[in-house]
Amino acid sequence: MYVILVYDVNVKRVGKMLKLCRRYLHWIQNSVFEGELTDLKLKQLKSEIGDLIDSRVDSVIIFTSRQERWMDKQIVGVDKNKLDQFL
């Protein structure tokens, strides 16, 4: 499934959250990630997020779609992390 993840966590956890998200998804902008994940990988990511964040003050939003092609993506301004596909 196609996933967009957005987080807002305390500055103490930003570095750890960034590293965690980069293991699973592609960074596209500050605190924003996207990519394809299996159901199992998404479940693992959610579990690791739960272990990392303080749910009283931190926020993580995960949007899912069956496939990326069902989503329109428009960028206004700078594309901070253009994804290149290599064959």
Topology (SSEs and partners):
Blueprint: E1 2-8, H1 14-24, E2 26-29, E3 32-36, H2 39-52, E4 59-65
Helix pairs in contact: 1-2
Please provide a brief summary of the model.
By secondary structure, the protein is an alpha+beta fold. 29% of the residues lie in helices and 26% in strands. The protein has helices spanning 14-24, 39-52, and strands spanning 2-8, 26-29, 32-36, 59-65.
Task: Describe the model.
With 87 residues, the protein is an alpha+beta fold. The chain has one domain (2-70): Alpha-Beta Plaits, CATH 3.30.70. Helix content is 29%, strand content 26%. It is built from two helices and four strands. The chain has helices at 14-24, 39-52; strands at 2-8, 26-29, 32-36, 59-65. It has a four-stranded antiparallel beta sheet with strand order 2-3-1-4, with helices on one face. α1 (14-24) runs antiparallel to α2 (39-52). The radius of gyration is 13 Å and the shape is globular.
